[in-house]
Amino acid sequence: MSDQAAEHDEPHGGALAARLNWLRAAVLGANDGIVSTAGLVVGVAGATGDRNTLLTAGLAGLLAGSMSMAAGEYVSVSTQRDSEKAALAVERRELREQPEAELAELTDLLADRGLSRQVAREAAQQLTERDALRAHARVELGIDPDDLTNPWHAAWASFVAFTVGALLPLLAIVLPPADWRLGVTVVSVLGALALTGWSSARLGSADVRPAVVRNMGGGALAMAVTYGAGALLGAVGV
């Protein structure tokens, strides 16, 4: 039994939601950091080979991107948290003003999930007696009132992930000799995107190949477009 339990150890409910929320912010941040900074420095490299110019452009892109990602995550997750709090407030008022109607609603929700009417009624009564708000929050709203989404966690995850991702193309474009910069950057970026795609798929229990192909394909396209634009602008002396 212990072996079977260990094999069936998988996240559920709030733990899974929190893990996926962190994963989404971290993976998006890392991917954006890699792709956007790589596109920026490769585009500039298409126009000029000056190391100081590449470093300045890369650092500016890193700082702007990391702050933008953090601010965006904070705003979006704060809005989600506000919505969750508002929904809990409505549910709290309804439980206070219409307890019987709420008990019937909880019974219907449990019955819709496959329980018999009698069992659903008994379960609803027990859950209501234990903690009515938590029961309705989880069954009706899909919210864990003890574990609401945290905007600061998402913001810091995005900031750190973007910064770490952006450092790779930045260092790859400024550290090698001039003749090696572009090749080292492209190979490093594609390798990093393959790794983030593989990691996101594994952590999310999804198929690895599509995630890797999407990441690498998007990064390669971004670098090709920006390098072409930079080379064209450099050729015309802009």
TrEMBL record:
Species: Streptomyces rectiviolaceus
Keyword Cell membrane: no
Pfam families, alphabetized: VIT1
Transmembrane segments: 154-175, 182-201, 216-236
Presence of the UniProt keyword Transmembrane in the record: yes
The name this protein goes by in its record: VIT family protein
Bilayer disposition of the protein: Multi-pass membrane protein
Keywords of the record: Membrane, Transmembrane, Transmembrane helix
